[in-house]
Every structure is written in structure tokens, then in C-alpha cells.
Design brief:
16% strand, alpha/beta, Aspartate Aminotransferase, domain 2, globular, Ornithine Decarboxylase, Chain A, domain 4, 4-stranded antiparallel beta sheet, binds pyridoxal-5'-phosphate, Aspartate Aminotransferase, domain 1, 7-stranded mixed beta sheet, 16 helices, 472 residues
């Protein structure tokens, strides 16, 4: 039996469009996929003793293409850059202003680094999707709390972006490290019609999840360093602590190829054309009654990523309508999000949207406006709660208890609850409305566990891990 190979065979045989990561969509010829190139560090490849380091050379070319001081290649997605950046910029027990809609990788770094988050909350847009944190509000929070570092998530998973002007200004004024998780925006720099990248807005460290939209292989990421501040050597130290010691040269070669493309005009043209085509598509299908989140955000004066297409409405009906044509990146009861890159056939997307407009009658199905990301109150630090003595409680008894573990829907990987937050009625309501969705459809819901019953394993009541009463 080869279950993984069989599953892959089955998936690729369907030949449906892939509106999910990686950005090459299985439609781009990958000249670096050569079995003989599947190696890790060997003396012959990087004879550093004679001053030759091909990885550094390629990283320097990548940095040049992004106009930054340094770029570091990750073979652990955006997760490694994010974690190394957060841990390097903030010593244990320091305060960090963090966008609450941060990905799990940021939340993990807060636990590993024993950091004290000051949350910058998002407001909620149509379909209850989180909007980018307001720049002025974040700046106010920074002024008030004087943190060691600021961790911004921009754009959101749905590609909505906000300026960082005020955030950058106060960080500079107070000499605070500014880290931007731009995992979904590797393709922003140098292209017309895309949101402004944090790289040109003065961020110190910018994390890219290259594989999400680019042609490099799954699991590739980049950390861009745009400062020579005194704490920067700690980035390498944190990186070395967290990174594999056996990087795949296939993944590294795919990043090398990406930097090569980035030095060529036709690569950039393909992104510029995509932005124009997708905006036309947004407007066409809006006129046919679909609600396109990105277009709505631009009408509010925001910047949206044309490589994301979120149709807001009845998630199940939209999913049913799209199913014959392709596979989405993310869905939930209030909508479906696609990732679209220059490798996609936009004709197929148009056909899928036409089907949505025809079959999801009622047109603008915004759905019930439940708060998607509850604002549970942080009672103790994530580190304290994660290390505290814990107990499992059934969902019916979880309200008002302090979470010991995160509750995370995947995708998008943004925790509904993090360790140390008090589970409130909004969280329980969110679970009631959403918990069936993730395991049955496109993903996974981590943190909800069944009680272990040896007589009927896997069939017990569902519950959460909470901090033991005596400690709470
Ligand atoms: C905003 C954000 N940051 C970081 C990550 C982690 O990226 P990766 O899966 O490439 O490690 C993700 C993944 O979805 C993400 O959405």
C-alpha cells in the first residue's frame, strides 16, 4: 500500500483547476525537479573554505530583486522566518504588539519566546472576514504600551491590505523593531495593481511565504532583512535553533529559479496582466450578483490583492457550485477564497463564477454576521497557560475557563482562542456554528479533542484543554 501516492494520483487524475497553493499550480514546468538534485549540504556544493557559498550568492540576487539588504531562504515555509524574526527581536518576557489575526506561527513564537502580547484587534468585514488592523489604532497601541517589537499581519489571508505609515512612524520614533508577516504577498513587490509591500514601507523584517503564490516549491519561504540594527545577528541565531540541518536543494533550487525569473521582464508582465484581468473579473461578476470581498475593500479605499478572490455568501452552496471546476484554497460557512496566479486559466474561473451566479440564487448572500474571530480576553500570558497544569473539559463546561491550548481552524490557521485567553460565550457560539465545517470540508479544526474512552475510541464527547482550576 502507498496511501499518499495513491491519494496524489487520484487528485491529479481529476485534472481540476487548483485555486490553492502552491502558486505554480502544477501547470508550470519546473526545471529543477531532477532526482539527482535531491541532496542536502555536501562539501562540493558549498565549498565555503574557498569562499564559495552558492546559497548566499542566490540569496544576494534575491535581495537585489527585492531591493533589500539581505534575504534568507527558508525550506520551512513562512513559519521559520516568522518565528526566527519574532524570537530575535524580543527577549523573554518582553511586550510585543501583535495583530491578533496573526497566523499560528506567530502565536507559537510567543509561547516559545515567553513573550507578553498586547493584541491589536481587527474589525470585521462582510462574511465576518477580519479586516487588516487599522494603522492609526495600532500606532496608538504602540505609543501606549511601548513594546520591544511589533508584529504585523498584512495582507490578511483574503488579501486585504492596509497602509503601515503610522505604525512605521512610531516604531522609528521609539526605536521599536517592526516585523511584517507578508506571507501572502511575495508577489507584491515591483508589480502594478498590487498592495504596497511592507518592504517599501520601512519594515525591518518581512516574511514571505514564497510557495503560496509563486512558482517555487511548496515549503519555500523568504526572510528579508532591511536594517542593520544591533539585534540583527540574533536573527541568525534564532534561525539556526529552529531550522532543519538538512535543507533540500530541490527547494533551494526552486527559490534560485524564482530569483532568476524576478530579473526578467516577462515574469513581471505576467503579474501585471493578472492584476488587470482579475479586477475586470471582479466587476463582471459583481454585476451578475456575486459579492467579491476584495472589490468591496477597494471601494472602502483599501488595497486588495488581485491574486485572491473571495466570494462571500453561503459557503456550502458556493462550494457546490465551484466543485466541478476546481479546488479552493479556503472555505467556511460564509464564503470561499481562491488563490489565482499567472499560471491559472482565468477562463475556468469565469465558468465557475458564472455557475455560482446562476445557482446561488438570491445574489448577494452575505450570510449571518457572526463574529468569526471572537475577542476572548487574555488573562495570563500564552507561555504561562501553555506550561500550566491542564485538564480536558467537555465543551458544555468550557465556558469561562482559561484555554491551555489553541483552537485553530485550518485554513486560515488563525487561532480562535490562544493559551491564556478566557473562553467566553462567543467562542462557544463560534464552535457551535463552525465546528462541523472544518473536518468535513476543506480542512481541520485543531484543539477540539474527544474524551478518551477505551470502550469506544474516537467516539467520546468533544472538549477543550483548559488550565486547571486551582491555577486559573
Ligand atoms: C499569514 C501567514 N503567516 C505565516 C504562515 C505560515 O506559512 P507556511 O505555511 O508557509 O509556513 C501562513 C500560512 O498559511 C499565513 O497565512
Amino acid at each position: 500500500m502507498t496511501p499518499i501516492i495513491q491519494a496524489l494520483d487520484h487528485y491529479t487524475a481529476q485534472g481540476r483547476a487548483r485555486w490553492h497553493t502552491p502558486g505554480h499550480k502544477g501547470r508550470f514546468s519546473l526545471p529543477y525537479l531532477v532526482s539527482e538534485w535531491d541532496v542536502t549540504e555536501v562539501r562540493e556544493l558549498t565549498p565555503k573554505s574557498i569562499g564559495m557559498d552558492v546559497i548566499r550568492q542566490s540569496e544576494d540576487l534575491m535581495a537585489e530583486s527585492f531591493g533589500v539588504l539581505k534575504s534568507r531562504y527558508s525550506v520551512q515555509g513562512a513559519t521559520l522566518p516568522v518565528m526566527a524574526a519574532v524570537m530575535a527581536a524580543s527577549p523573554p518576557r518582553s511586550r510585543v504588539v501583535v495583530d491578533r489575526i496573526a497566523h499560528q506561527s506567530v502565536h507559537s513564537a510567543l509561547v516559545l519566546g515567553n513573550l507578553e502580547p498586547v493584541w491589536a484587534y481587527s474589525s470585521q468585514g462582510p462574511g465576518a472576514y477580519p479586516l487588516p488592523v487599522d494603522d492609526k489604532e495600532r500606532a496608538r497601541l504602540i505609543m501606549e504600551s511601548r513594546p520591544q517589537a511589533v508584529v504585523v499581519t498584512n495582507p490578511t489571508y483574503e488579501g486585504l491590505s492596509a497602509p503601515l505609515v503610522e505604525t512605521h512612524r512610531v516604531c522609528r520614533e521609539l526605536n521599536i523593531a517592526l516585523i511584517v508577516d507578508e506571507a501572502h504577498g511575495t508577489h507584491f513587490f515591483g508589480h502594478e495593481g498590487f498592495p504596497a509591500t511592507a518592504l517599501i514601507q520601512g519594515a525591518d523584517l518581512v516574511c514571505h511565504g514564497a510557495h503560496k503564490t509563486e512558482v517555487s516549491l511548496t515549503q519555500t519561504g523568504i526572510l528579508h532583512i532591511n536594517t542593520s540594527a544591533g539585534w540583527i545577528p540574533r536573527v541568525q541565531e534564532a534561525w539556526d535553533m529552529l531550522a532543519t540541518s538538512s535543507p533540500s536543494y530541490l527547494l533551494l533550487a526552486s527559490l534560485d529559479y524564482l530569483q532568476y525569473l524576478r530579473h526578467h521582464d516577462n515574469y513581471h508582465q505576467s503579474w501585471n496582466s493578472l492584476a488587470k484581468n482579475m479586477r475586470k473579473m471582479w466587476h463582471t461578476w459583481e454585476n451578475e450578483g456575486l459579492f467579491i470581498l476584495q472589490s468591496w475593500w477597494e471601494r472602502q479605499g483599501g488595497q486588495a490583492d488581485p491574486a485572491k478572490l473571495t466570494v462571500v455568501g453561503d459557503g456550502q452552496r458556493l462550494l457546490d457550485a465551484m466543485e466541478p471546476f476546481g479546488v479552493e484554497e479556503k472555505s467556511d460557512p460564509l464564503g470561499v477564497t481562491l488563490i489565482v496566479t499567472p499560471q491559472d486559466d482565468t477562463e475556468v474561473i469565469a465558468r465557475a463564477l458564472e455557475h455560482c451566479a446562476r445557482t446561488c440564487s438570491g445574489g448577494r448572500l452575505i450570510g449571518e454576521r457572526r463574529r468569526l474571530w471572537p475577542h476572548a480576553r487574555q488573562v495570563v500570558s500564552p507561555y504561562t497557560a501553555w506550561h500550566a497544569e491542564r485538564e480536558w473539559v467537555p465543551l458544555s463546561l468550557a465556558s469561562n475557563r482559561i484555554a491551555a491550548r489553541s483552537l485553530i481552524p485550518y485554513p486560515p490557521g488563525i487561532p480562535i482562542v490562544v493559551p491564556g485567553e478566557r473562553i467566553d460565550s462567543d467562542v462557544i457560539l463560534w464552535l457551535e456554528e463552525n465546528r462541523a465545517w472544518y473536518p468535513r470540508r476543506t480542512g481541520d479544526l485543531r484543539g477540539v479533542e474527544k474524551a478518551f474512552d477505551p470502550l469506544s475510541p474516537g467516539r467520546g464527547e468533544e472538549g477543550l484543554w483548559v488550565v486547571k482550576e486551582a491555577v486559573s
